[in-house]
């Protein structure tokens, strides 16, 4: 399941390459043919990301809601204005340069480290899965428009950029009222909501729930964007037993969870990686950016010694998802 930083990064990609442009829409697979016909030829006017969902607005007060879920993915092709925090030099989008060699960044006129500063737009084809599972450049990068490959639910085509959507949990058209209703059901997102108001909402909900905090952090109605990786890491960083009922977590600890999520989400959007370890040397930082197992405290470390106390990291199932935690530090 994608986590919030990825969705915000892909929304940024759409903002650069589709917003303000007339978009041709089709459904090669046929499952979204009617919806594609409605938005075909309209101008994309706005994009929003809230938690794990993205909303793309078209002229005429029409919105496209996308929730990738477990198996959804985007393919981008064409001359793409890219931010290397979104697509690295090896063609991977949704994650940072896996070679992990560069910390310094070149900022562009928009205040971001876009590849426009080193010669973009460039013609390319990249696969974007909203997790850390991605593929690289395709062999058909010079064909335009690119051939349809596999089961494409929706193809969005601007003059020079193509985006193919596969396997989403949700792909539907909504009115402004329906978008507002969808967002109203979601918990606060630090990149969308006022931080102080979001903290109050999150704290109030958690503090009245008997539900284990390990489940509450994954509930998108409580807080938006947290998935399996961030859950495990936030709980460890707070030294919090995941089984503790929300109402029993001290208020200041709940507030610090929100503030820590705010920090980690910002790092994730900037770097493309779910970096959750602090105070690394430059060498260790490069190593961590190159290898997932070097940038987390407990996630994916079942049976290995805790980085703090040496106790074996436990793996269990909570909320039908894998939970990693240290029974010594988190008690």
What does this molecule look like?
With 331 residues, the protein is of the alpha+beta class. The protein folds into two domains: 4-181, N-terminal domain of MutM-like DNA repair proteins (Alpha-Beta Barrel), CATH 3.20.190; 189-325, Helicase, Ruva Protein, domain 3. The protein contains eight helices and eleven strands. The strands form three sheets. A five-stranded antiparallel beta sheet has the order 1-7-8-5-6. A hairpin with a 3-residue loop joins strand 7 (154-157) and strand 8 (161-166). Helix 1 (4-17) packs across helix 7 (251-271) and helix 4 (195-207) crosses helix 7. The chain is globular, with a radius of gyration of 20 Å. Mean pLDDT is 84; it is low at 85-124 and 127-139.
Describe the secondary structure blueprint for this structure.
Blueprint: H1 4-17, E1 24-26, H2 33-39, E2 44-50, E3 53-58, E4 62-67, E5 73-80, E6 122-129, E7 154-157, E8 161-166, E9 170-174, H3 176-184, H4 195-207, H5 213-216, H6 228-237, H7 251-271, H8 282-290, E10 314-318, E11 321-325
Antiparallel strand pairs: 1-7, 2-3, 3-4, 4-9, 5-6, 5-8, 7-8, 10-11
Helix pairs in contact: 1-7, 4-7
């Amino acid at each position: 399941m994608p986590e919030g930083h990825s969705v915000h990064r892909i929304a940024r990609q759409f903002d650069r390459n589709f917003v303000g442009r007339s978009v041709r829409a089709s459904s090669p697979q046929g499952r979204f043919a009617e919806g594609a016909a409605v938005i075909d030829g309209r101008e994309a006017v706005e994009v929003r990301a809230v938690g794990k969902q993205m909303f793309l607005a078209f002229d005429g007060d029409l919105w496209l809601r996308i929730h990738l879920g477990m198996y959804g993915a985007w393919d981008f092709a064409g001359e793409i204005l890219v931010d290397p925090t979104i697509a690295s030099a090896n063609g991977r989008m949704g994650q940072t340069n896996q070679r992990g060699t560069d910390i310094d960044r070149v900022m562009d006129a928009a205040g971001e480290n876009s590849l426009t500063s080193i010669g973009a737009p460039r013609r390319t084809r990249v696969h974007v899965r909203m997790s850390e599972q991605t593929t690289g450049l395709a062999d058909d990068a010079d064909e335009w428009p690119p051939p349809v490959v596999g089961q494409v639910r929706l193809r969005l085509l601007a003059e020079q950029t193509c985006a193919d959507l596969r396997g989403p949990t949700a792909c539907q058209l909504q009115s402004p009222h329906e978008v507002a209703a969808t967002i109203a059901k979601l918990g606060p997102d630090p990149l969308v909501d006022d931080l102080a108001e979001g903290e109050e909402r999150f704290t109030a909900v958690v503090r009245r729930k008997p539900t284990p905090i390990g489940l509450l952090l994954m509930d998108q109605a409580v807080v938006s964007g947290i998935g399996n990786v961030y859950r495990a890491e936030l709980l460890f960083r707070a030294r919090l037993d995941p089984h503790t009922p929300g109402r029993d977590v001290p208020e200041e600890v709940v507030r610090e969870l929100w503030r820590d999520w705010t920090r980690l989400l910002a790092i994730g959007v900037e770097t493309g990686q779910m970096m959750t370890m602090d105070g690394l040397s430059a060498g260790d930082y490069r190593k961590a950016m190159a290898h997932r197992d070097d940038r987390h405290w407990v996630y994916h470390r079942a049976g290995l010694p805790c980085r703090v106390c040496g106790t074996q990291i436990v793996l269990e199932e909570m909320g039908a998802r894998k939970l990693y935690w240290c029974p010594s530090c988190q008690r």
